[in-house]
Amino acid sequence: MRIVAGRFRGRALRAPPGRVTRPTADRVRQALFDMLMHAPWAGRGRVEGAQVIDGFAGTGGLGLEALSRGAAGALFIESDRNALSALRDNIAACGAQAMAQVRAWNMTRLPPRGAASPADLVFLDPPYGRDLPAAALATLERGGWIAPDALVIVETAADEAPPLAPEHLLAQREHGAARLSVWRHGDGRAR
């Protein structure tokens, strides 16, 4: 796995051993960011300068790809000890320590946001088949972690139901066993 584009392009990403972490494949990240950079409802301005949350961060591939493409800062949230080690190594390998914060938190039990900036881009890539996206989104909303007009991108298994109402989807794409779903957050709920 490597960073696909931007200032960290080509940097290798280390994955933790075992099957607990399922990193988003390079080609899926490329497709996602191509969509974000060129869609009429997104564009470069949605990534460049953005505050990002990479929830269920694993290797940090989604957040690091956003930083590589001009995001201002990223909060990486991960609870697995082995994934946290790989995540910290990947941030260091990209030289992104000044733009990255890592928190060893459970995505379904987050503290309130406090003084931190709310996220303009939220990436959620939880373990498949555990119904975690809806619980994580509810926790993010309750804690004030999501900016009113943020884009929320969720990766699920292709056969899983999306965590938010399909009529509010901006885009949905399947890539092998993975499905990417994108919503715009507004007024505390997807719209």
Automatic annotation (TrEMBL):
Its EC number is 2.1.1.171. Gene3D superfamilies: Vaccinia Virus protein VP39 (3.40.50.150). The keyword Transit peptide does not apply. Pfam families: Cons_hypoth95. The keyword Transferase applies. InterPro entries: DNA_methylase_N6_adenine_CS (IPR002052), RNA_MeTrfase_RsmD (IPR004398), SAM-dependent_MTases_sf (IPR029063). GO terms for molecular function: 16S rRNA (guanine(966)-N(2))-methyltransferase activity; nucleic acid binding. Keywords: Methyltransferase, Transferase. NCBIfam families: 16S rRNA (guanine(966)-N(2))-methyltransferase RsmD. This is Ribosomal RNA small subunit methyltransferase D. The gene is rsmD.
